[in-house]
C-alpha cells in the first residue's frame, strides 16, 4: 500500500512539473566587492598624486580601513572589471557610483602606474549605478557626485596631476599649468608622468581631495590633508571616499548600507 501511494505521489509531482505549476529554483551566487582604498581627508595622512596610488604598498590597517587612509596591496593587484566610488559617513553609504572599465580586466596598480602619457578615460557609458541618499549634503561641488561622465585616471597637465577625475568636470589641456583640474589624489608640483614630486615641494602642493571649482587660486579642498602651500582653503569634510573593485559585481548596496572590507551583492544585470 505504501509503495502504491509513493508511486501516485511521484506521478502527481511529475505532472505538476510538466504543467509548470512547480517551478525549478536555482541557487544565486553572491558577487563580491573588495575595498581597495579609503580616503579620509582629515586624518593627518595626505594621499596625494605621488603617494600610494602607483606603489606596491600597504597603507593603514584593517581595523581602521574605513576610518583613515587605507590601501590594500592585495586588492590593488587584482584584475577587475568594475569599480565603485562610495562616499560614506562612518562606514554608512551616503552616495555611490559604479562604473565598468573599458577593455579587459586590469589591476588598479597597473592602471595607476600607466602615467606616461596618462590622461586616460578608463570607463565608458557613464555610471551603471548612481545612488545618493535623500539626506546627503554638500553635493553641489562634490568631486564625484556633482559632475557626470566617466572616470579618468592620471590626469597630467603641466606640472600637476590628479589620480581620479570625472569627465564632466574641467579637464585641463596637457600643457596648461592652471591648477584647475580637481578630484581625488592631487599634486600641483610634480612630474605627473613619473609620479615624483618636484624637489623641495614634496609636502607643499599635495592635497588629497579637491572640490569642483573654476578657480586657479586659492584652491578649495576638503579637510586638512593638504600641503603647506599658502593658497589652500580648508573646507568641510563631505565624508570618506572608499574605492571598491570587483571582477563580476555590477551593482552596489544602496545608501544606508554599512560597509565592510568585503561587500556581497546579488547579481543584477546579465548583459555585462
Describe this structure in words.
The protein is mostly beta strands and about 270 residues long. It has three helices and 16 strands. The longest helix is centred in the first third of the chain and has 18 residues, at about 1-20. The radius of gyration is 23 Å and the shape is globular. The mean pLDDT is about 90.
Give a short synopsis of this structure:
The chain has 3 helices and 16 strands. It has 272 residues and is mainly beta. The strands form 4 sheets. Strands 1, 2, 3, 4, 6, 15 and 16 form a 7-stranded antiparallel beta sheet that branches. A 5-stranded antiparallel beta sheet has the order 5-7-8-9-12, with no helix packed on it.
Q: Can you count the helices?
A: 3
Order of helices and strands: HEEHEEHEEEEEEEEEEEE
Low-confidence runs = none
- Span between N and C termini? 54 Å
Overall morphology: globular
Helix content estimate: 10-25%
Number of strands: 16
Largest sheet: 7 strands, antiparallel
Amino acid at each position: 500500500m505504501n509503495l502504491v501511494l509513493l508511486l501516485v505521489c511521484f506521478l502527481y509531482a511529475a505532472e505538476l512539473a510538466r504543467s509548470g505549476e512547480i517551478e525549478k529554483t536555482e541557487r544565486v551566487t553572491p558577487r563580491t566587492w573588495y575595498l581597495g582604498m579609503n580616503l579620509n581627508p582629515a586624518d593627518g595622512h595626505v594621499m596625494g598624486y605621488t603617494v600610494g596610488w602607483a606603489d606596491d604598498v600597504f597603507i593603514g590597517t584593517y581595523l581602521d580601513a574605513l576610518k583613515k587612509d587605507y590601501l590594500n596591496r592585495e586588492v590593488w593587484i587584482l584584475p577587475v572589471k568594475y569599480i565603485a566610488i562610495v562616499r560614506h559617513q562612518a562606514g554608512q553609504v551616503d552616495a555611490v557610483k559604479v562604473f565598468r572599465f573599458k577593455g579587459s580586466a586590469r589591476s588598479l596598480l597597473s592602471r595607476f602606474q600607466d602615467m606616461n602619457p596618462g590622461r586616460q578615460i578608463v570607463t565608458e557609458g557613464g555610471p551603471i549605478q548612481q545612488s545618493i541618499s535623500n539626506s546627503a549634503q554638500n553635493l553641489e561641488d562634490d568631486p564625484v557626485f556633482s559632475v557626470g561622465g566617466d572616470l579618468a585616471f592620471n590626469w597630467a597637465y603641466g606640472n600637476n596631476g590628479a589620480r581620479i577625475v570625472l569627465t564632466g568636470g574641467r579637464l585641463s589641456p596637457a600643457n596648461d599649468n592652471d591648477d584647475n583640474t580637481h578630484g581625488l589624489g592631487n599634486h600641483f608640483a610634480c612630474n605627473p608622468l613619473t609620479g615624483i614630486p618636484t624637489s623641495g615641494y614634496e609636502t607643499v602642493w599635495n592635497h588629497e581631495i579637491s572640490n569642483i571649482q573654476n578657480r586657479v587660486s586659492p584652491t578649495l579642498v576638503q579637510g586638512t590633508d593638504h600641503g603647506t602651500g599658502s593658497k589652500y582653503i580648508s573646507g568641510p569634510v563631505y565624508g570618506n571616499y572608499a574605492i571598491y573593485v570587483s571582477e563580476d559585481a555590477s551593482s552596489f548596496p544602496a545608501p544606508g548600507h554599512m560597509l565592510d572590507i568585503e561587500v556581497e551583492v546579488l547579481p543584477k544585470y546579465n548583459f555585462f
